[in-house]
Design brief:
disordered N terminus, eight-stranded antiparallel β-barrel, mainly beta, 4% helix, 168 residues, disordered C terminus, elongated
Length: 168
């Protein structure tokens, strides 16, 4: 039976130069015909984070929906391997955002249960706003660790038992 857990206080960070990331690589490919709207594209992106979240090279996969030449929305997943508040491991961020001719706005959430290593039990969310022309993007990230994961370094709830095979 899964256990109910309490979480520790959330550690907020604010968007600042101390918490920022840069785009290391952006590779985008159209899905379907180009030059018509709406249209779709897939993008593979690599970012480098500094600050409360530190990762030298993340791996992102986005689906982009263009509603105009420089406007649309996107959704994707970002695999982050690095540190959060000095703890090492990996986790996945789910991201959703929009963009127009001035820049990009994105909200992201830690995928529950995706933390490994010292990041088991990580939960959190954040956001960023990127203005075109900026080389560095400031982000905010509010995060916490479940107490059991913090104390034991292990998953908090035991998985449900699999049903016995009764096909004999």
């Amino acid at each position: 039976m899964p256990q109910t857990t309490q979480t520790t206080e959330t550690t907020p960070t604010t968007a600042s130069a101390a918490n920022s990331f840069t785009f290391k690589d952006w590779e985008e490919h159209p899905v379907g015909p180009e030059g018509v709207f709406p249209r779709l594209a897939q993008a593979k992106v690599t970012n480098a984070f500094t600050g409360a979240l530190t990762a030298p090279a993340t791996t992102c996969a986005y689906t982009v929906a263009y509603t105009g030449e420089a406007a649309g929305t996107f959704a994707g997943m970002e695999l982050v391997t690095g540190t959060v508040d000095g703890r090492e491991g990996a986790f996945v961020l789910e991201e959703r955002g929009s963009f127009d001719a001035t820049g990009t706005h994105c909200d992201f959430t830690v995928v529950p249960g995706s933390g490994t290593g010292g990041l088991i039990g990580l939960r959190g969310s954040g956001s960023f706003v990127h203005r075109y022309g900026d080389t560095s993007v400031e982000y905010a990230f509010d995060f916490a660790f479940t107490p059991a994961a913090t104390a034991a370094g292990a998953p908090v709830a035991a998985p449900a038992a699999a049903p016995a095979d009764q096909s004999a």
